[in-house]
Design brief:
- By secondary structure, this protein is mainly α.
- It has one domain (2-220).
- 71% of the residues lie in helices and 0% in strands.
- It contains 12 helices and no strands.
- It has helices spanning 2-30, 38-56, 59-83, 88-107, 133-137, 141-159, 161-171, 173-178, 183-209, 221-231, 236-258, 265-285.
- It is globular.
- It starts with a helix and ends in a 20-residue tail after the last helix.
- 43% of the residues are buried.
């Protein structure tokens, strides 16, 4: 029971940054914008988040620093891809390269430093329950926020008029513009939301997952978040399943090595991506299942003047 509880807790911790970053990217792509700079925004959020927490001694301030850093990085993307109508794929890749270099510069003075990680919830009687106690009532605030975030995004996209307008911009920006909706403004806000989520996801790593900062600590999680959006076929509900599946594979590969299972670790690391390819093939063959990508995803839009 203790081993199962430890594995479940580790899966939750490993999945949380993926879920937060992928949720923000899902909203961005639903608006019709493809931002491949998630990895760059995450690593800058990690550096700024740790720096803010180390300087002030507050995890909350560190999280806010990460959110602001990710949002500012996303504004650079919005300026280029939306304001100047530059190719979105090239801009996103450039943003990732910029973020990796910028995080090294920002975090150079914090390498080797440590902070007190985010505290975990403790409710006497409930947290001490076997197996489910620590899972449901003993996590840090980031885990609970990630669940609330995905529920809020689902409600926004499918239960509000603003969410319908945002999805319309992603499906047909010409028609949305003809109806009088400010497509570029809506997409800018969606990009900013995605950047804020990516920055927070990056800040989670040094603030809660590990109590220190090292260069490149995101370790490709931004790219996994991008794959998760495709894995989930742009649906929030499936995003939760995908995030915890990817997190489970990450943790189980570590336990498999500890148990002496004769499976190469490289193969275990490739399993999430292999699962993504299989799901894409199945969805393409069964056209009636799942949601397809927004029709205008990655398409440059220049409104008529």
């Amino acid at each position: 029971m203790e081993l199962i509880e430890a594995i479940v807790l580790a899966v939750l911790a490993a999945s949380t940054p993926l879920l937060i970053a992928a949720t923000g990217e899902l909203v961005t792509e639903r608006s019709g914008v493809l931002n491949l700079g998630v990895e760059g925004m995450m690593i800058v959020g990690a550096a700024c988040g740790f720096g803010g927490a180390w300087l002030t001694g507050s995890i909350l301030v560190g999280a806010l620093f990460g959110i602001v850093a990710g949002t500012l990085m996303s504004l650079v993307f919005a300026l280029m891809a939306l304001g100047l109508a530059v190719n979105q794929v090239a801009t996103g890749l450039a943003l990732t390269i910029l973020g990796i270099g910028l995080s090294g510069l920002i975090g150079a003075g914090f390498v080797g430093e440590r902070i007190t990680p985010a505290v975990h919830l403790y409710i006497p009687g409930l947290t001490d329950m076997p197996l489910i106690g620590r899972v449901l009532f003993g996590e840090d605030g980031f885990v609970y926020f990630s669940v609330a975030l995905i529920v809020g995004v689902w409600w926004f996209l499918y239960r509000t008029r603003a969410g319908l307008i945002l999805r319309a911009c992603g499906d047909n920006h010409v028609s949305a513009h003809a109806l009088g909706y400010p497509v570029l403004r809506i997409r800018t806000f969606a990009v900013m939301f995605g950047g804020a989520c990516a920055g927070l996801a990056g800040a989670y790593l040094p603030l809660a997952y590990t109590p220190f900062f090292i260069p490149g600590m995101t370790a490709g999680r931004g790219w996994i978040a991008l794959a998760l959006v495709v894995f989930a076929s742009w649906r929030p509900g499936r995003l939760v399943v995908g995030a915890y599946l990817f997190g489970a594979v990450t943790i189980l590969q570590l336990h498999a090595q500890g148990w002496g299972v004769g499976i190469p670790s490289q193969f275990m690391s490739a399993l999430p991506y292999l699962a993504t390819v299989i799901v894409l093939v199945l969805l393409s063959r069964a056209r009636t299942g799942g949601s397809t990508a927004p029709a205008a995803l990655g398409t440059v839009f220049v409104p008529d003047r």
